[in-house]
Design brief:
rod-shaped; binds zinc ion; mainly alpha; two-stranded antiparallel ribbon
């Protein structure tokens, strides 16, 4: 058992050493390894594309309502000076209108 380790570990270290040296010396070998890594990354991206799309769709759905409410609040805030609440029904109407659009009550 120990004997196997004594053989295996030096062989493993030698293999790693050879790989590192080959990568350092040979640009061709480096390019080959790099292109393999790029291929692996591309493959991973292809595999996870649907998942990422799913996640972003879910996130968009989750934040849509919040964004809508915020946008409406900002819009209301920006146009607040131009609009007032009806004295009778409380709906938003133009400041200079004499009658409410909703209930017809006089302002
Ligand atoms: Zn009204």
């Amino acid at each position: 058992m120990v004997k196997v380790l004594f053989i295996f570990v030096p062989v493993f270290i030698a293999c790693v050493f050879i790989l590192v040296v080959a990568q350092l010396i040979s640009p061709k070998f480096r390019g080959k390894m790099m292109s393999r890594q790029i291929k692996a990354a591309k493959y991973m991206m292809d595999e996870s594309k649907d998942d990422i799309r799913n996640i972003s769709t879910n996130m968009a759905d989750a934040t849509k309502d919040g964004i809508e409410i915020t946008t409406r609040a900002i819009k209301d805030g920006l146009t607040k000076d131009e609009r007032v609440y009806c004295k009778h029904c409380g709906s938003l109407i133009d400041k200079d209108s004499k009658f409410c659009k909703n209930c017809g009550g006089e302002q």
